[in-house]
Design a protein that fits this description.
single chain, 99 residues, alpha+beta, Endonuclease, Chain A, 4-stranded mixed β-sheet, 4 strands, 44% helix, 25% strand, DUF559 domain-containing protein, Restrct_endonuc-II-like, Endonuclease_DUF559_bact
C-alpha cells in the first residue's frame, strides 16, 4: 500500500459510520484499493502515475469493466489524502451513508 492508502486505511478500518471497508480487494483481474461490498463501491487512490503514459486509458477501461459489473468507482487524488486524510475519510463516509 502507498502512504496515502495507509493513512486512509488507518481511519477506514475502524468502520466509521458502521461501514465495513475492505482493502486491496480483488474483483476480476483487478485489485481495488478499498471496497464497500454492500454498496458495490470501489475507492481508488490515484497518485501521479495515473496521469502518465497510457495510464488514463487503462484506468478508463478498468472503470468501464467495473461499471459493467455494477461497481461504482470513486477516484481520489493521493495529494488530497496526504493533505487531510480525515477530511477525505469523512467525505467517503458521507457518500456511503447517503447511498
Amino acid at each position: 500500500m502507498s502512504l496515502p492508502e495507509v493513512l486512509l486505511w488507518q481511519i477506514l478500518r475502524k468502520q466509521p459510520g458502521h461501514i465495513k471497508f475492505r482493502r486491496q480487494h480483488p474483483i476480476g483481474r483487478y485489485i481495488l484499493d478499498f471496497y464497500v461490498l454492500e454498496l458495490k463501491l470501489g475507492i481508488e487512490i490515484d497518485g501521479e502515475a495515473h496521469g502518465m503514459d497510457d495510464r488514463p486509458e487503462r484506468d478508463e477501461a478498468r472503470d468501464r469493466w467495473l461499471a459493467s459489473q455494477g461497481i461504482r468507482v470513486l477516484r481520489i487524488a493521493a495529494t488530497d489524502v496526504l493533505a487531510d486524510p480525515a477530511a477525505v475519510a469523512d467525505s467517503i463516509v458521507r457518500l456511503c451513508t447517503a447511498s
